[in-house]
Amino acid sequence: MTGACSARCSTGRRACSRGQRSCLAAIGDSKDKGARALETFAYRYREGESQYERFQVHKTIFPADFLADLGFQTLRRSGLVELARLEFGGLQPVAEGRRAKVLRLVKEAFTPAPAPVPPGP
Fold first, then answer.
1. Taking 90 as the threshold, does the pLDDT of residue 25 lie above it?
2. What does the alpha-carbon distance between residue 117 and residue 61 come to, in Å, rounded to a whole number?
3. How far is Cα 12 from Cα 31, in angstroms, rounded to an integer?
4. Is residue 112, in this structure, part of any structural domain at all?
5. Are 45 and 63 in contact (CB under 8 A)?
6. What does the alpha-carbon distance between residue 51 and residue 44 come to, in Å, rounded to a whole number?
7. pTM (two decimals)
8. Residue 85 is assigned to a structural domain of this protein
9. How does 36-54 read in b/e, with b if 16+ C-beta sit within 10 Å?
10. Residue 114: which residues within 8 A CB-CB, separation 6 or more?
11. pLDDT-derived band at 6, boundaries 50, 70, 90
């Protein structure tokens, strides 16, 4: 599809957190490159599967519920494998949180005021 990038999961020992970082990095990179969407394959695991099974056995495919939590929507499904897509058009910037607001106020408090400019002749 025009304007879409694809991603694949590549995980190691700390599979879950690395999978999340990998997916979030792919989202950021795709958006930075001007893509309108990101597509990837997903695997629908049975209820109660272990983290090992979910993130180690299928190293090139993300768990479907993991992608759904990030906002991906299923385009096609064949058995337990599906193609999922995340549209970037609907993303909104995150509003300033409490921590960010406090940091901004502290920074403003410690930033010196600009030096007065003497009047010209």
1. no
2. 61
3. 25
4. no
5. yes
6. 13
7. 0.56
8. yes
9. ebbbbbbbebeeeeeeeeb
10. none
11. low
Whose tokens are 């969407």? That residue is 37
Q: Is residue 103 part of a domain?
A: no
Domain count, the chain: 1
**Calpha distance 79→3 (Å, rounded):** 27
Burial annotation 62-97 (CB, 10 A radius, 16+ → b, else e): bbbebbeeeebeeeeeeeeebebbbebeeeeeeeee
Here the tokens at position 73 are: 């929507």
Is residue 26 within 8 A of residue 38, CB to CB? The reply is: yes
pLDDT tens digits, one per residue of 35-72: 888 888 888 887 887 777 766 666 667 888 888 888 89
> Structural domain of residue 81, as residue ranges?
4-91
Q: What is the CATH number of the domain that holds 70?
A: 3.40.630
Task: Indicate the residue type of 2.
Answer: T
54 inside domain: yes
**Look-up of token digits 């090992």:** 52
> What is the CA 118 to chain-centroid distance, rounded?
50
How far from each other are the two terminal CA atoms of the chain, in whole angstroms?
A: 65
With H, G, I as helix, E, B as strand and everything else as coil, classify residue 74.
Answer: strand
